Amino acid sequence: MSAAPKQNCCQIIDSKIAGRIFYPGSTTYDASIASYYGDSERELSPSCIFRPENTSEVQTFVRWVTSGRCKNNQFAVRGGGHTFWSGAANIQPGITVDMRAMNSLQLSADKKIAGIGGGALWDQIYPQLVPYNLTVMGGRIPGIGVGGFATGGGITFASREHGFSCDNIVGYEIVLGDGKVIYASSTSNRDLWLALKGGSNNLGVVTRFDIATISQGKMSYNLVNYNYTDASLQAHANAFSGFMKPENFDKSAMMGMFLNYYGGTQMSLSDALWYTQPVQKPAVYNHFFNISTSNVSVSQLDTVDKVVDKFGGAIPTHVDRGFQLTYSFRNPDSATYLQLFKIYETAMSKLASVEGIFVEFLIQPTPVTNGTNLFGLQAGKTDDVMVDMTSAYTRKADDALVGKALGDMVNQQKQLLKQSGYLIDFIYLNYADISQPVLQSWGDSNMDKLRAASKKYDHKGVFQTQVPGGFKIPAE
Questions:
Q1: Model pLDDT for residues 141-192, shown as the tens digit of each residue
Q2: Over the stretch 289-342, which tens digit does the pLDDT of each residue have?
Q3: Rounded Cα distance, 268 and 4, in Å
Q4: What is the side-by-side strand order in the sheet with 358-365?
Q5: Strand boundaries in 148-294, DSSP class E
Q6: Are the C-beta atoms of residues 236 and 291 closer than 8 Å to each other?
Q7: Among 55, 146, 38, 52, which residue's Cα sits nearest to residue 90?
C-alpha cells in the first residue's frame, strides 16, 4: 500500500482552517489578484491566497506557517494593495494573506476610539462615522487599506492638526511571529506600540487598529486648475512658499500642488485645497484663488466620505506599470520652488515617447507630528514639505527608462535642495520605492528601537525572513 502524498503548505492550512484557502483559477483568487493597484503586483501568482475572517484564524495561520513542513514557506500580507513595486504585498511562490474580510468597525462607548479591522479600507469606515459627526485619520482616495497606510505613517486632510494617522493610534491587536496575540498601547508593550508607528510589516500581523476619532462635520474641497505658463508657475512658487511659512500656518488647511505630465508637450497645473472646517473658500488660500488663470472645477462642502469619493473619482482605480519616489525638505524661498518646477519640466522630454506616460509631481505639507512615531521629525514643526513623484505608463519594457529618468531628475532636485541647506533626511515610507533607504533615513536611534522591538517580539525573525516583502530592518 503506497503512502499518502505529502500535503503542501496551502493544503495544510486549508485542512486546519476550512474555507479560507483559495487557489489559482478560483473566483476569489482571481479577484484578489486583479484588485492590486499596479501591474507589478498583479503579475505575481502566489501558490494560494488565505482570506482570514477573524484574529483567531490569523493566529492559527501564523502558527502553522511557521512550523513543521511550512516553516520555510514564505508569505505576504495585503490590505488595499496600492504599493507599486513588485513583492510589496504579494508573493510568488508562497501564500498571500488577503486581510480585507477583516473590515469591522466598533466604536467605544464614549465614541472616542474606533476599533477597525486590520483589513478594512478607509472608504468603508468613513460613512459609518458620519452619523456621529466623527471621522478618523485615513486615506484621501477610495481603496486605501488601513493596515499599510497606518503602519507606514498616513497622510490625510487633518494632518496639519493631528499629524500622521499613526500618531492617533492608541492601540494595536497584533499576531506575533510565534502565533501569540498581544495588545500594544502606550501603557502595555509600549516599545512595540511605538515601533508599529512606522514599522510597517516588520513586527507581526495587525488584526485591529484602535484609533482616536476626531470631531468632523462638513469640510471643504476646492480643485483649482491653471494654465501651465511661466507666470502661473512663478505665482505658485510665491503662493506656496508663503503658505508654508510658520506665521501663515492654519491647522485646518491641507493642500496638494500638482504638476502633471501627459506625454508629448502636455503639462497641467492644479491645486487640491482642503479645509477641515465648513468654509467654502478659506482665506488662507486666497493667493491661490487669485492667480490670474485660475479656474475652480470643484467647489465642495461636504462630509469626509463624499470628499474622498470626489477627489478619488479623478484618480484611476488601477494602472499598468508604475514607479514612485519621494523626498522631504524645509520650506524654501520661491526661487527654489521655481527651480524645482523647471528641473521637472526639462526632465519630462526624456519620457515623451513612453506609451501611456503620466507623471505627477505632487508637493504638499508634511504632517505636523506629535512625535510619537519612528520618523525622527521635530514635533510641532509646521514648515516641512514632502514630494511624491509618481508615474504610470503602459509597457513593462519602459521600466528602466522611466526609473532612470525619474531617478536622475529627483537626484537633481535633491542636490539643489541640499546645496541650499533645505533637504532633510526623512523619507516617507508610503510614497517610497523599494530602492530608497527609508528606515535608515529616520536616524540611528529610531532604528535601534525598531531592531530591539523586532528581536523582542519576533525573536525568530519570521517577519524578516518568511515575509520578504516590504522595507526590511537593515542589518546592524
A1: 999 999 999 999 999 999 999 999 999 999 999 999 999 999 999 999 999 9
A2: 999 988 999 999 999 999 999 999 989 999 999 999 999 999 999 999 999 999
A3: 64
A4: 295-302, 219-226, 267-275, 253-261, 358-365, 384-393, 321-330, 423-424
A5: 169-175, 181-185, 205-212, 214-215, 219-226, 253-261, 267-275
A6: yes
A7: 38
Q: What is the DSSP code string of 105-134?
A: EEE-TTSSEEEEETT-BHHHHHHHHGGGTE
Kindly tell me if the per-residue pLDDT of 3 is higher than 70.
Answer: no
Q: Over the stretch 226-245, which tens digit does the pLDDT of each residue have? A: 999 999 999 999 999 999 99
Indicate the SS3 state at residue 360. strand
Q: Are strands 113-117 and 384-393 parallel, antiparallel or unpaired?
A: unpaired
Q: Which of 428, 426, 429, 473 is nearest to 451 (CA)?
A: 473
Span between the terminal Cα atoms of the chain, in Å: 53
Is the model's pTM score more than 0.70? yes
375, three cell numbers: 520618523
Instruction: Flag whether pLDDT at 4 surpasses 50.
Output: no
Provide the residue type at 157 as one letter: F
| Residue 158, amino acid | A
Cell 512615531 found at: 373
Per the CB < 8 A criterion, the answer to whether 87 and 49 are in contact is no
- State the DSSP string of 159-186: HHHH-SGGGGEEEEEEE-TTS-EEEEES
Q: 3-class DSSP state for residue 156? A: coil
| Long-range contact set of residues 75-79: C-beta below 8 Å, sequence gap at least 24 | 75/50, 75/466, 75/467, 76/46, 76/467, 76/469, 77/147, 77/201, 77/205, 77/467, 78/36, 78/145, 78/148, 79/118, 79/119, 79/120, 79/121, 79/145, 79/146, 79/147, 79/148, 79/149
Residue 1 confidence class, pLDDT cut points 50, 70, 90: very low
